[in-house]
Design goal:
By secondary structure, this protein is an alpha/beta fold. About 35% of the residues lie in helices and about 15% in strands. A hairpin with a 3-residue loop joins strand 5 and strand 6. It binds manganese (II) ion (MN). Its EC number is 3.1.3.16.
Length: about 350
């Protein structure tokens, strides 16, 4: 489909997203044409990317967002040197599940795609299981579009978004050592070339067993033997995936060879879970930043300073062998993967 109204103003769209206060009930005002233009440009960009992205370190890895625009803004602010949302001062890798569940799926996916267009080499998006038609027609995205546009327009936009999702890469490899995907791996993964060879667009990943695992698989807690073989076979140190809600935002499995990160705190307003994002530094050391749930009476600079000094004094170190302390969800955790310097 050709561009419909010419080139969208990416700088203005970035500003509109960073200025937006997510408490405004009406959401960001988009014209149908600018959405279609952004999607058209995004498809052009994504279709040139490989199915297995090669990503350099340092990088910030983000798990499920699920339409929680305010939390996406918090993540940008946390990692922005200017303390401003929308400023891409870091390399980012998002692990999918941008839409559904939360109330601002449209803002989240538009914000991410606009960033992708503005910073194509620093901003990486892979596909989650909610970036598929038969899931996002049921779990909120289509309903949200129908509440903001007339029904035929909403349906056309939903189709255009899903055409774009069909082109998203399915996995990423950070510095050749950390394999990242939304779901997980399964017996169909024999080598990294198997991922590279999956052809896109892939309208229904369910028809490809390996793609299904990458989008849907969950770790089996007793699978350390399988994990060891997989890591040897693929010559990797760690798997980073998302897809499952973690009470503290992240969790290690399979003898600490696999980590789940989930970046939507207070998920669907029922869970009091924290969110987490993972930062991999130049030396391939991994650390986590936790997004705590924030109550109305906890907002403000005074409360932030109190909380900050409280958390800063917490030097506890969480290990898999120690029973997690429910009060210590702010514990920092660091993991050295390799001493090799990242290029
Ligand atoms: Mn998922």
């Amino acid at each position: 489909m050709p561009s419909l109204s010419g080139k969208p103003d990416i700088a203005e769209l970035l500003k509109r997203h960073s200025d937006f206060n997510c408490k405004t009930p009406s959401g960001i005002k988009y014209s149908v044409w600018e959405i279609l233009d952004v999607l058209w440009l995004a498809r052009r960009k994504l279709s040139k990317e490989p199915t297995l992205l090669e990503v350099k370190a340092p990088v910030v890895i983000v798990g499920d967002i699920h339409g929680q625009y305010g939390d996406l803004q918090r993540i940008f602010r946390m990692f922005s040197s200017k303390n401003k949302s929308g400023q891409c001062t870091q390399r980012y890798l998002f692990l999918g599940d941008y839409v559904d569940r939360g109330r601002s799926s449209l803002e989240v996916i538009m914000c991410l795609l606009v960033h992708k267009l503005a910073y194509p080499d620093k901003f990486h998006l892979i596909r989650g299981n909610h970036e598929t038609k038969h899931i996002n027609c049921t779990f909120g995205f289509l309903d949200e579009l129908e509440s903001r546009f007339d029904k035929p327009t909403a349906f056309d936009l939903w189709e255009a978004f899903n055409d774009t999702f069909a082109l998203l890469p399915l996995a990423a490899l950070v510095h050749k050592k950390i394999l990242c995907m939304h779901g997980g791996v399964g017996p169909d993964l024999k080598s990294l070339d198997d991922i590279k060879n999956i052809k896109r667009p892939l309208d229904d990943p369910g028809i490809n067993a390996l793609a299904s695992d990458l989008l849907w698989a969950d770790p089996m807690l007793n699978s350390s033997g399988y994990a060891v073989n997989t890591f040897r076979k693929l010559n990797i140190d760690l798997i980073v995936r998302a897809h499952q809600m973690m009470r503290n935002g992240y969790g290690f499995f399979c003898n600490r060879k696999l980590v789940t990160i989930f970046s939507a705190p207070n998920y669907i307003c029922q869970s009091s879970n924290s969110g987490a994002v993972m930062k991999i530094d130049r030396q391939l050391r991994a650390g986590f930043v936790i997004l705590h749930t924030v109550k109305r009476d906890q907002i403000g600079l005074k409360h932030f300073k109190e909380e900050f000094s409280k958390r800063n004094n917490d030097r506890s170190y969480t290990s898999r062998d120690r029973k997690p302390d429910p009060g210590a969800s702010n514990s920092a955790e660091a993991l050295t993967l390799s001493t090799k310097k990242a290029v």
